[in-house]
Here is the input.
Amino acid sequence: MEGDQLGVPQSTEDHSQRSSISSAGPRTGAETNTMMSFGREFQSSALDVLVYLIDDTVVRLTVDNLPSITAHELHRIVLESLRLPEGALELFSLWLVSPFLELQLKPKHQPYKVCRQWQDLLFRFTSCSKDEIFEDEPSLQFRRNIFFPKRKEAQIQDEDVLRLLYEEAKYNILEGRYPCDLADCEVLGALVCRVNLGCYDPEQHTASFLKERLDSFLPSHLCRRGHRLLSALWKRGSAHSPADEQGLLRAFRELPEEEEACEDRAALRKLYHSYLQKCHELPHYGCAFFYGEIDKPAQGLLHRGGRKAVVVAISLEGVCIIDSKEKHILLGLAFQELSWDHTFPNEEEHILWLEFDGESEGTPVNKLLKVYSKQAELMSGLIEYCIELNAAAEGGALDPSAASSSPSASQSPPPDRRRPKLQRQNSVLCSRIQHLSTIDYVEDGKEIKRVKPRRTTSFFGRQLSNAPTSYLAVRGAENLEQG
Here is the structure.
């Protein structure tokens, strides 16, 4: 796969039985309640296609010759139905989504045929049981294209397009897919309050009013209702501070008043922009998500480790490893800061290897992180594709002669590619290298000496090439495998 077929698991608790196609024409009550999936045979040439937006709004289309229609052709039909401008064609994509796998379709893909292969895709890229594979049906969704740059998104002015982007960003924030500090969550929640409730009204918008609707404005994993003692104990054992209605109310009250009325379309457009601009600061905004596991550091007298469930978020900017339970970033790397590879050493597990600079007891080392996942092949392909897109974009924007004449051009990333330093030391966006179990190497002269533990191969030839980089790749010595 070329990087744009993306596997993303979701909680099985959120499993939806919806699917995206039924036979066109009159239906019985049973047929109305249970939509038939792509993967089944149909007698009718005209079929109802249900395309879902991120907020579960349904766009119902009637399509002729569905088995041969491409994602590009169906995408255009959706745009016309939603009355979106032509520019939205590259901003959004069609996705096939189930609780176990999410695929962003390429324009040339035929959604019907991909659905016919759905069970094979689940078997190849997930750890679903046979029953889950047999029963799962994907729905067709209209979502943001992960390959659309944030800098171009920031220039959008169309209100309908902005609303779709806002709804998707809000969904990812509330579901915890975009880890975010509490202070920022409260600001984002206040903007949602302004969109949903209008201008702040001290008589109506009280703490008790917001408390009943807290999880509509703040991520559910930050909302802990119940006994104060239990909340205090939860706070002590978590990296997050629990959210409450007082912080949200304060942020709502402190939002600056717009010159326009709160219900005015221009005011809504500004609110959508403000929400998206805040989300653009997140390194994982607009990313694709993959499920995997990493080794836990050995603990206790018996040096027991085990594995930790993680989500790997990949975007045009780089790779983030997110703790699935704690909802914070364990490792964040721009493409200039890593090398990677995908291996399948035996019949059991695929591994995505990430190599990056670090320290071991004060000594500069190269650290290797193993991500165990059946989706490692998808991750590796997506990393490579994102790097190719970035290289093509930079090649078109830069003057080659100027780049070659500048001695510092190959030593550091362009200023606009440097990520801002976080001001909060305990931010959920800060890498937590100490929580990772890595394999460390240190260079000594012309040879590479192992730090610990031992490893049998070195294969990190894959990295960002022909572009400014701050990463120094390790090259294994000839006797490395003999060590």
